[in-house]
Design brief:
Layout lengths: L10 H19 L7 H19 L4 H29 L11 H25 L8 H24 L5 H18 L5 H23 L3
Length: about 210
């Protein structure tokens, strides 16, 4: 006698469904631990190398070009090292599927960076020749530090404790840069994107597997 197609699921099917539910629940409650500590160290090194180069530029446009190139290099370093750390955690070769904490982390990370990019575009105004010197000395460094700090802090709610603490440090440096007239924008960028990330990167690498 065959089972009715619309009958209750077999016992093993219900067990599999229960296990999948438990797994999703555990993933959702876990923290995203694949923030690349050594990647942060690499990003920090690029910022420290870029700061004196940017400071020596004769025009605000040259200064902006140096930091845009640095941001592209740093973003590539961060993306590659995060991908490699996530791959190392896979038990066997196969497609890389984002866990629930990873999705929450990334979805919380990008909005603030997107807002920062749009504000930069509005302030620089690429359709108008020339760029105000104060943008390079204080406004853009403060804006970038603040928005990156917001991104790290919000995304860090789904990661280990060191990540939101690092974001709070960025926000503090951004506020100082924006409102302290004597603050040097390149020095503050080197302190934030350089020294702060290197310090937290070493801590994360030693405490959370690289």
């Amino acid at each position: 006698m065959s089972a009715h197609p619309s009958g209750p699921p077999a016992l093993h099917d219900r067990a599999i469904q229960d296990l999948l539910f438990i797994r999703r629940t555990m993933e959702g409650a876990a923290s995203f631990t694949d923030v690349p500590g050594w990647g942060l160290v690499g990003i920090g090194a690029t910022a420290i190398a870029a700061a004196p180069v940017a400071a020596r530029q004769g025009t605000p446009e040259g200064w902006l070009a140096v930091w845009i190139v640095t941001a592209i290099v740093a973003g590539s370093v961060g993306g590659v090292t995060m991908w490699r750390k996530m791959r190392r955690r896979l038990p066997a070769p196969g497609p890389l599927l984002l866990s629930a904490p990873a999705r929450k982390f990334l979805l919380s990370f990008w909005p603030a960076l997107f807002a920062g990019a749009l504000l930069t575009l509005a302030l620089v105004d690429p359709f108008t020749p020339g760029m105000a010197p104060r943008l390079a000395s204080r406004v853009l460094p403060g804006l970038w530090l603040m928005m990156y700090g917001v991104a790290i802090t919000t995304a860090g709610a789904f990661s280990v404790r060191a990540v939101p603490l690092m974001g709070a440090g960025f926000m503090a440096l951004g506020a100082i840069t924006l409102f302290l007239p004597a603050a040097d924008g390149d020095l503050m960028m080197a302190l934030g994107f350089g020294a702060l990330q290197i310090g937290f990167g070493v801590h994360i690498a030693r405490s959370h597997g690289g």
